Amino acid sequence: xxxxxxxxxxxxxxxxxxxxxxxxxxxxxxxxxxxxPSGLYGSTDPTYDGVWRQSLALLAQHTVGVEPAAEAVxxxxxxxxxxxxxxxxxxxxxxxxxTRTRGAQGAQGAQxxxxxxxxxxxxxxxxQALEALDAEDAxxxxxxxxxxxxxxxxxxxxxxPGGASDTNSTSLVIGALEAADTDTRDLRSKDDRTPYDALRxxxxxxxxxxxxxxxxxxxKKGGLAANADATAAGVLGALGAGLVTDPExxxxxxxxxxxxxxxxxGDSPTPEQAAGNGAAYLAxxxxxxxxxxxxxxxxxxxxxxxxxxxxxxxxxxxxRTADARKPLAWLKKNSGAWAAKSGPAAYAQLIFAAHAxxxxxxxxxxxxxxxxxxxxxxxxxTADRSDAPADGKDGKDDQQNRQxxxxxxxxxxxGAGVWWIVGAGLVGGIGIGFxxxxxNKKQRP
Length: 445
Description:
By secondary structure, the protein is an all-alpha fold. The protein contains 18 helices and six strands.
């Protein structure tokens, strides 16, 4: 799901049909890593994923009854722009955020690229986390207002304000606004379209190849290519669900009846039908191996741990807990090395998958995901559902625990590294979605 190396960035941009040389990659000499803020989770460069990984880490801790460190919450709120939005990362909170999409041509483009640019994905993730943590209304209210102001005419959202709507960004924003008690069913754009209108328009018609799945975006000719990653996001969005799915509401704590696999609704499904169709597609995608495959160029035969975790959450949210058991078992057996290499966002994804299915995140294939996540950041204030130390640590100092709990992020599908792809997209003026990370080529299970 997440790739960190520059070569993978260029491959990803080729996948989405954009040919350019990002200004951020023009200088082959690596720049020194910035000093990490004490309240930040993870030990890798936060330039493209600081707010993202922090938000997921805090939300995951809250989900399992852990009260995050005050400095960690303060760091996240301190990233908010004056207009209520959040960028991927503000190394200096005193620096103003960019108010428009920046270009990447020439020296001025390179300079502009250094200005933090607010985006819908970072804002939506931060909003979900801060709502769960009962942050001040002024903080969450400003984020809600900004997201509403950048809704596209078709009812959806792109990664950057004004960018073409995509399934992943639209779904993430729906979940965030619902968490903030916003009625997204009646949230209408200037063209009188709702977010669900946008998602329905991104659902592959039943009579087409991959019918029932979601596409990331239409191709240049308006065609929709089924993509399992976008489908996982689309199922949650069509259900009005966020990153955290309650197993008591979805049936994740028990069995479920066999679900219909028939694609319903033709080329104009209701949101509920679109969610059901997408879940059926995901069920088929993981039925064989128990996992999804990477869609990045050159990595098609490699398992995609992060997207598999997302699929588990989506299946559980749609009530297909029986279909979620095989990929959940696969994750328990195979996700340890990936999570250790990828860091806090990966641990959070696994915690969300465990929670959605009623599994124990403190005994996930023998691993304590809560403790491992805690080891990547500042000491938590409480851990009221565990006998482990409140900070999830073992007596070593913060930096050593971060190194033990998180690798260098240079492996396949690194949790932090997705935003290298996002960074390239920002420089090139592309909108890139949350779960998809810039992939709109057809993905097959």
